Protein 1
Amino acid sequence: MKISCQIIQLLFLLLFLSGCKTAGGLNETPSPQDENMVYRNPVVDRSLPDPTVIRAKDGNFYLYATEDTRNTPIFRSPNLVDWTFVGTAFTDQTRPSFEPKGGIWAPDINYINGTYVLYYSMSVWGGEWTCGIGVATADSPEGPFTDRGKLFRSNEIGVQNSIDPFYIEEKGKRYLFWGSFRGIYAIELADDGLSVKPGAEKRQIAGTAYEGVYIHKRNGYYYLFASVGSCCEGLKSTYTTVVGRSKNLFGPYTDKQGRSMMENHHELLIQRNSRFVGTGHNSEIVQDSKGQDWMFYHAYSVENPKGRRLILDQIRWKEGWPYVVDNSPSFMAPRPIFNNQNNIK
């Protein structure tokens, strides 16, 4: 009888654990004292597609997203987890207008020469030759942002579907990467980052499977993160986050086998699971006080599939390549760590 009771107890434990999606060694029923040490996805349960994030001079993080909230939403957080809506980058009077009736998509926030610089896409669905990329500036991460106009449109630069900008500095020069399923391209910008450098020529960096490019430099490698598949079909979405790497900013970027991203080869980073679908368009990587890397992206929640929710996961590294635990969104995980203790509710 004693042995039978032990077996029954073990079976109940195994059944309990099998029903929990773990992350960082935690299951979904933490004790009350552990609640302040964990977070749950989505970290913001409203539609915030295509997130971009920056740590501002005031020590807070600011996050911007495609305008499912009209005029480009801005959120603030001390710790990457607890977010407060602070307003919008534009108003109906100040919003960009170079694409009539266009939406403001996939912003990219940066701090350049003492100014907050927000690159953005402007497009209508299907307007792949009239869409384009513009830029706005502000003295504060909360805005208001002043539109500085378009950098280029698809028909002007000769790249169909010119959306999804990403800015990077390298050896004193400034570059913009962009593209959506018609090739990923790069071009040099002027010193202030507000226009294309006169005489600069575009160059293709990756193939036609990708959009939402972001490049991260680490230990002598450049890592090109991007999204493949369909972004916006609710629970039918196939969006997936992928990555390749290169020793050079402009490539060639390859997978672990050395196959080129120009030929649409890559490594899987984040894919769907039982709770989240359409996992893609990641933000910049940001570090906490412990040196841990974190990344935002969006996904549809199976429980509430209206809109793309904000997801946060830790980026870990193994043998020179990034990975996320289980290659899919966590349900619950240990919070980012910040020395100022702002990560405790």
Protein 2
Amino acid sequence: MKKIGFLSFGHWTPSPHSAVRTGADALLQSIDLAVAAEELGADGAYFRVHHFANQLGAPFPLLAAIGAKTSRIEIGTGVIDMRYVNPHAFVEDAGAADLISGGRLQLGISRGSPEQVIDGWRYFGYEPAEGETEADMARRHTLKTLELLEGEGFARPNPRPMFPNPPGLLRLEPHSEGLRDRMWWGAASDATARWTAELGMNLMSSTLKTDESGEPFHVQQAKQIRAFREAWAQAGHDHEPRVSVSRSIFALVNDTDRAYFGINRENSDQVGLIDSTRSVFGRSYAAEPEQLVKELAQDEAIAEADTLLLTVPNQLGVEYNAHVIESILTHVAPELGWR
């Protein structure tokens, strides 16, 4: 059994060929798609966060709005760039959004990826400390965020406060119990996956990975997941971890599907450079349901994961993306034993 959700990059463009032409369109349609996905029986609504781009940049208002409009579906990010984050503001905003949703947030965070501008985090007021890299800064922000999510008091109370204080040191409010266990790290390498496990975060692995062996993407990703689980067991955490993988999967069940995705199919992995690091990008899947089942059954990483996030072409609109999700839930997932 697997949890199956969608991952939206939240693009918008003023092009007449796009169903999502403004930031308002992207936000409101994201809410509508989450509601539709819940009604279809999907398990998660996840959103990519990018700054300085026509994409979803401020996650917590969106997550809170979805939380208020839904009742069951998990609501998450994939991922928030921790180079841009004030840990204290993050914990307050996340706590509020999680309480609004009834404890359904699943927050994917990471050290980030190449952005639209040079060192965009500097415009947010952040600088690496002496001797730090920007990745080090992201991890420092992460460690502080995880500490604050524990909910322990740390701030000295004013002896003459405006309102009465509880005894002892004060914590950030509102505090949402259990959110610390629902934090995920987007790991590209095996070493980072092990670091994720040591810190007790869930593993979020997407459609690209550092190329560490030259093997097919899904094989390397499966090995990364196994390394994560081994490190988790060695760390002795008292609960089971979760692992998600992302895939572009399209079941071709009507003429519209075939027009969009039935031609010029990319059936193999791609290799490229991310920040001068050789990376392997996983293939997309698009086929008639029977063939799709056969191909997906060979994907070792999907077999290892407990959560599958379907990347959706959000600019094609809510109705079509709901169809994409429903097609997988109806024609593919049962045949593979995912549901």
